[in-house]
Amino acid sequence: MTDVTALLDAAVATSDPWRGDDTFDVLDPATDEVVRTVPSATPETARQSADVAAAALGPWAASTPRSRAEILRRTFEIMEGEAEAIARVIVAENGKALADARSETHYAADFFRWYSEEAVRLDGSLGRSPSGGNRILTSHKPIGVAALVTPWNFPAAMATRKIAPALAAGCTVVLKPASETPITALVIADVLRRAGVPEGVVHVLPSAHSSAIVGELLAHPAVRKLSFTGSTEVGKVLLRSAADRVVSASMELGGNAPFVVLPGADVDAAVAGAMLAKMRNGGQACTAANRFIVHESVAEAFVDRFSAAMGSLAMGPGHDERNQLGPVINRAAQRDMQSLVDQALASGGRARTGGAVPVGPGSFYPATVVADVPGDAPVLREEIFGPVAPVSVVGSVDEAVRLANATEVGLAGYVYAGDLAQGLAVAERLDVGMVGLNRGVVSDPAAPFGGVKESGLGREGAEEGILEYTEVQMIATQW
């Protein structure tokens, strides 16, 4: 099944069968036209889904790790075989450039491959107490039904990064995708069904009523895990709700990533890395470089070349391969971009490229560089989440580190240095969970993804990702 229309039709047709008559429209942000009308889940739907997931938990948890691994591997293979069509589904509802969507599709599929391998390596341990009185056996058991909540910016990868480790661990899942981009999640659910996931193990609940759905799931007695990717503000609300039933919570929340260019850095390499770190998905990423902190010795060359690179990006509908920058997700986001640019300019910044809403349909905003933004400008305290890059110039490495850490969040950061020892030293001083040192991308299925401070709790990806969906059981015995 590689036709885009067929994927769309199958995804909607195979959504949970107890859906009601309520529906909502999914819009193409490049045209404001309707991509598809999809069923809208209700709180009753959420309860039913959790009930069925709870009934399916026992058999799925009891299945062999190898059998789960083979299903995940088949899911990877189907996604790879249908990658072009899936990428075009992502473009239709998210708007990102086709090259970005293709990259996301392969990245998303790779979580199924990675966790097909991790499923058979979920080891326990055998030890002896210091007193010699007990042998201590530990094992990892599936935590239970997992409620998964994903954002719109990476509608495939954010879903697979949660679904794959949960299934590998033996959990059943109920996924609430973002209302802006539910179709990709439905496509993935259909791929899982075709790969052999038993009925009742995976549920996807598109809905125009996100908070009511998630609240219902958190109140369900079978739900023992919440995994959320989204804003820090919403994450705090969900953590309070999870606390009522002491539900285990993994939180991948907001970012405000610094991009630090140190004296002696290779400016061309830094610009190339900046384009990756800033413009992946048009800047709509929690790991996107948000604040560019550049040492004065390389500032002029960096700003000139970075502005030229940003200004050269072709903007337009994502399905056209000539375009490198699609729209932001909706009109509200477009207004936010202009407001943030106006803030930066009011603080004393200078627009070097971009900086104005284009005339025409769709929620487009051009790649924008604002130079000479003061280190105390309000815009530097906000997660921009779009193609806007404020640049601040500093006179010392210590000042760069101070500005980089002057935020309550700490997800990702980037450091470009000509000297590896200096780069490592600065990277270690950053209050973030992940650092790209002389590279503009940090994400990988084999790497633990997550932040510190108000950027969240727990890790996704790597071995750590599957452990988030398990409980450790200890048995004490003697022989």
Mean pLDDT across the residues is 96
Total number of helical segments? Answer: 15
**Relative strand content:** 15-25%
Please provide the count of β strands: 20
Helicity, as a percent range: 40-55%
Strand order of the largest sheet: 12-13-14-11-10-16-17
Large-scale geometry: globular
Structural class: alpha/beta
Major beta sheet summary = 7 strands, mixed
Q: Runs with pLDDT <50, length 5+?
A: none
End-to-end Cα distance: 56 Å
Radius of gyration: 23 Å
Protein name: Succinate-semialdehyde dehydrogenase/glutarate-semialdehyde dehydrogenase
Enzyme class: oxidoreductase
GO biological process, one term: gamma-aminobutyric acid catabolic process
Keywords: Oxidoreductase
